[in-house]
Amino acid sequence: MMLIVGLNGSPRREGNTAYLLRTALASVEEAGARTAFIQVSEVMANVKLPFCVNCSTPCEGICYKDTRLAEVFDLLCRADGLLIGSPVYFGTISAQLKSFWDKGRRLRYQKALLNVVGGAMAVGGARFGGQETTVRAIHDIMLIQGMTIVGDGHLHDDAGHQGACAQRPSKEDSEALLRARILGRRVLEVAGATTSLRKRQGDGRLYVTR
């Protein structure tokens, strides 16, 4: 069964970004796939050194060994698709989400997310409040991990745009909720069509080298 993981980059577990993300995951579940919701701020809260200081090259993952972050990275190694959401913080992603991906150098070194399908979403305080630049920042992270990026287009809807963008409160933004559902379906659809590209060795876990 396909696994689609949602990463909530907002510090609020039940905030606007989480609502948009859960809406997308709901459409994935309706289509028969498994989902997982990850609260990034809670994962990073238990990391002793939350910011990457490039302590080893290539990254050996020592700084997060035996932590919740290591468990989440292992989960991502088994995912077919990722839905990543962030609130707009000065035109880009949240500090929590940035720190999470800065710690993901070992994922990149092992090509763990190569051909995993990704979709991005963002929530801002205004209609034109930096959502698209935030989505593009998420896309940059995905590209550097070797992921396959899709937008919020679907055969039964329209060609879409960069991703799902909402103005808070997101639960009252009906167009954004529609785009989130479409994005979820698109990620799942493309993930299903590209399964053979995600060839993983062994159990797909990310191992620390020492």
Chain-wise SSE layout:
Blueprint: E1 3-8, H1 16-30, E2 34-39, H2 40-45, H3 68-76, E3 81-87, H4 95-102, H5 105-109, E4 117-124, H6 131-144, E5 148-149, E6 164-167, H7 174-193
Parallel strand pairs: 1-2, 1-3, 3-4, 4-5, 4-6
Account of the protein in words:
Helix 1 crosses helix 7. Helix 6 links the parallel strand 4 (117-124) and strand 5. With 210 residues, the protein is an alpha/beta fold. It has one domain: Flavodoxin domain (Rossmann fold, 3-Layer(aba) Sandwich). Strands 1, 2, 3, 4, 5 and 6 form a six-stranded parallel beta sheet that branches. It has helices at 16-30, 40-45, 68-76, 95-102, 105-109, 131-144, 174-193; strands spanning 3-8, 34-39, 81-87, 117-124, 148-149, 164-167.
* CATH homology-level superfamily: Flavodoxin domain
Q: Given the C-alpha coordinates, what overall shape results?
A: globular
Mean pLDDT: 93
In helices, the fraction of residues equals 25-40%
Report the major sheet. 6 strands, parallel
The proportion of residues in beta strands is 15-25%
Query: Remind me, CATH topology?
Result: Rossmann fold
